[in-house]
Amino acid sequence: MNMEIAIIGTQGSGKTTLFDVMTKGKGSRGKGFIDHVGKVFIPDDRVDRLSEIFNPAKTTYASFELFEFNGFGRLWREQNAGEIINALSGFDAFIHVVPDFEPFSAVDEFEEINLRLILSDLSLVSTQLKRLEKERKVRKISDELIEVLRKLEDALSNEIPVWKVELSEREGELIRGYTFATNRPRIVLLNQSEEKFTSGEVDSELERRLKESHMDYLRTCLTLEKEIVDLEKEERAEMFRAYGFERPTTDLLIQKIFGILGYIVFFTAGEKEVRAWPIKKGSTARQAAGKIHTDMERGFIRAEVIGFDDFIKAGNIKKAKEMGLLRLEGKDYIVQDGDIIVIRFSR
Ligand SMILES: Nc1nc2c(ncn2[C@@H]2O[C@H](COP(=O)(O)OP(=O)(O)OP(=O)(O)O)[C@@H](O)[C@H]2O)c(=O)[nH]1
Ligand SMILES: [Mg+2]
Fold it and tell me: E strands, 21-154, where?
């Protein structure tokens, strides 16, 4: 399964601008609450190096699906909250764009989305409770489930998000199947005016609230960034530097998304293709094989593995073998970030 990331934010906050920057303008129109959908390719120097060495017919960067989701923005209606929450089930994380330029108040816009997320979850929980109470008359429903949902309903009614509610392990398990909006991993992107961005000014009240909600945030000026990414490659780097961007926001966002979702990247490399594969940290060699092809997972024998740095040291596979840097690993080997892997399998 590919990672799916949704951009959310109030109307006019800069979602489309961010979407265009991240997909390089190559998205297409979506349906329902989704305005745009596209692929984001993850720039990776290691892929470039491997590509130089293997000179493959095809080079494939890791990617994820990006969506501009307007269920909490222009298309938000409290009475449609149930429908909106249903549309969220596939998203692994949110990028929440908060506008910090005239005439917006960043704090208000941030809180407006928080409120809409809470109202959506409240609608989900209340609908569930009503349904379960009814079903209870004809079949056995776990009291525990009803209790934990009541606990959440109570919290949400007091504007407390799901992530803040203390739950036991058992309670957490009971609600695992529900797709709440207020406990979805989220990164805040503060979309500033050019002046605020270049002067480094951040509203202290907003900063306090972000910190209080343990939310990671990045700052940018999207209109400026969009102008820069539209430039030729050489000019681009220079302009990014001139305007004080540490790195393009897309790169920073990707880094953060990988961090909060716990993803790493492994590589496959050969004459046909050099390719980067995102995978959950802690995955086994066999699971990695399954990402490439189900046949490889089924018929998995072993993996030949070499870390990226070791491979660069050796220069090529033959040399790596001679140097004893290429390791044979079994199905339970835990894949490390940057591993180059060849799967041996039987058909
Ligand atoms: N000053 C300033 N204006 C911006 C910035 N980013 C976006 N805008 C403006 O805000 C308006 C909305 O930008 P969009 O990217 O379309 O915002 P959106 O969130 O997709 O809007 P909807 O999908 O209609 O809710 C445009 O007119 C942009 O030019 C920014 O960084 N600074
Ligand atoms: Mg838009």
Answer: 28-29, 34-41, 58-60, 63-69, 93-100
